[in-house]
Design brief:
five-stranded antiparallel β-sheet, four-stranded antiparallel β-sheet, 487 residues, Alpha-Beta Plaits, Aminopeptidase, elongated, alpha+beta, single chain
């Protein structure tokens, strides 16, 4: 039971015999006084008239009091009249560990003059420790919007808050107030309106996205655990040898700031967050998402869109996965060595070995362009590279300079925007003018880095989103195709 329930519970009535004696004595006194007044009035010269007049006066008084009470029973209290105080607990949590105080501090600030903070701190697992912490926040005019509790196996509890604090209150002062109240290992960072979604709702949304698309698992883990680095380690290297670190147990491993989970598609998934240790609660949530992915098996959205090229040919753009591996190998066989060299930046004799990695939804998303006969003629990849995101294109020689690469690139960047990426980069060669032209055609701020003939182009996505069809499949107004060789 919470503190609020204890405060609002009715107290049992205690019986007092002295109160009964006083009430009985008062009753006898009232009867004696009434009898004396009645005898005085009845035996007087106009006794009956006085009795009737008294009865009428009592009736008129009762009727007036009833009318007055009904008229003013719903009237608002006059200005300046203080209302009765309502007890508000320092913090209340629901069964899921979330909740809010509904205005701890009571400063009456508007959201425009307040700052949102996400804060974690560790407190002793004993009665009153959370109350002391919330009282310290209230003294600084801080409202607690949400609260999650993460019990620790060695004792203690990690409390995660979403706070609304005065704009002028520095984070250092907030941390000192928490330390004085008994909190330690405190971590704090700025939050935004997206953090106002409660944890069960956010987890259900991430589970839904993961169920619809296997490529969403790394992104869902990142959004669930905050700022972290996620690596997918395949079971074998490109040369076929076992990969070190890919033997995670079924139940996973939690080691302070690193968790290792078994990848349902083979290998392991490692999640690192050096600045903040993971809690057993976070580990259980991450493992539940991975188990959901394992039960659903390989899957990819099957939406597609038909485009008409300037010469009248139609191509179909859709998501691709491991089932497209034979068609991708056949396209490799039709591509020239120059085209493969511009794409893979090295020897092309073993280029087929990269395809299994590139088509796996665990390492990113792939879009494919196929002709009306079903022949695969182009691939576009959006690859998760730790904290960064890479885009890459491969267009068959016969289908280059028809705008297919620009169309695939726009769709990949739209997926990156939807995934919450801040930027994407493309690695190519300075001589690949087609890829440079396609990146410039996006209309986004670009950064260029050239080193020994290798060109890295980074597009910042914090500007206006690219005019491309969203990853969910919503159509867009098609822009004219740019010319240029795309790789």
């Amino acid at each position: 039971m919470t503190d609020r329930n204890l405060a609002s519970a009715p107290r049992p009535h205690r019986h007092h015999w002295r109160r009964d004696l006083v009430e009985l004595a008062a009753l006898f006194c009232a009867v004696a006084v009434a009898d004396g007044i009645a005898n005085l009035v009845v035996h007087g010269p106009r006794g009956p008239i006085l009795l009737v007049a008294s009865a009428v006066a009592l009736l008129v008084t009762a009727a007036f009091h009833t009318w007055w009470a009904r008229r003013h029973s719903h009237a608002p209290p006059p200005a300046g009249t203080p209302s009765d105080p309502v007890p508000v607990p320092p913090a209340t949590t629901g069964a899921d560990g979330t909740g809010g105080t509904g205005g701890t501090g009571g400063t009456g600030r508007s959201p425009a003059t307040a700052a949102l903070w996400r804060m974690r701190t560790t407190v002793r697992d004993e009665p009153g420790s959370l109350a002391s912490l919330c009282t310290a926040l209230a003294r600084n005019g801080v409202d607690i919007l949400t609260l999650q509790t993460h019990p620790l196996p060695e004792g203690g509890t990690v409390d995660e808050f979403l706070l609304r604090a005065p704009q002028q209150l520095p984070s250092a002062e907030l941390t000192r107030a928490v330390a004085r109240a008994g909190g330690h290992s405190t971590w704090i960072e700025r939050a935004d309106a997206h953090d106002l979604v409660d944890t069960p709702t956010r987890v259900l949304g991430l589970a839904t996205r993961t169920a619809l698309d296997a490529a969403e698992l790394p992104l869902a883990l990142r959004q669930l655990l905050g700022r972290c680095t996620i690596h997918s380690i395949p079971a074998t290297t490109l040369s076929g040898r076992p990969n070190a670190g890919a033997d995670a147990p079924v139940e996973g491993v939690l080691e302070a700031t690193v968790m290792r989970l078994r990848d349902p598609s083979g290998g392991a998934i490692t999640v690192e967050r050096p600045y903040l240790p993971f809690t057993p609660t976070e580990f259980a949530r991450a493992r539940a998402l991975v188990e959901l992915d394992a039960r659903l098996g390989p899957r990819v959205p099957r939406g597609q869109h038909v485009l008409t090229l300037p010469e009248g040919n139609e191509i179909t753009v859709r998501r691709a996965d491991g089932s497209d591996l034979p068609a991708a190998r056949a396209m490799h066989d039709r591509c020239s060595e120059r085209t493969l060299g511009l794409r893979y930046h090295g020897p092309v004799a073993d280029a087929d070995r990269y395809l299994g990695h590139l088509l796996s939804p665990r390492f990113g998303r792939t879009v494919a362009a196929t002709t009306a006969s079903g022949k695969l003629v182009a691939l576009g990849h959006l690859l998760w590279d730790g904290d960064e995101t890479e885009v890459a294109l491969l267009i068959e020689d016969e289908w280059q300079r028809r705008g297919i690469g620009s169309e695939l690139l726009r769709r990949l960047l739209a997926m990156a925007v939807e995934a919450g990426c801040d930027s994407v980069y493309a690695v190519t060669q300075a001589s690949n003018t087609g890829m440079v032209a396609a990146m410039r055609g996006l209309g986004l701020p670009l950064d260029y880095q050239i080193e020994e003939g290798t060109l890295v182009i980074t597009a910042r996505l914090d500007a206006t989103p690219v005019t491309a069809r969203s990853a969910s499949g919503a159509p867009r107004a098609r822009a004219p195709f740019e010319s240029g060789q795309q790789h």
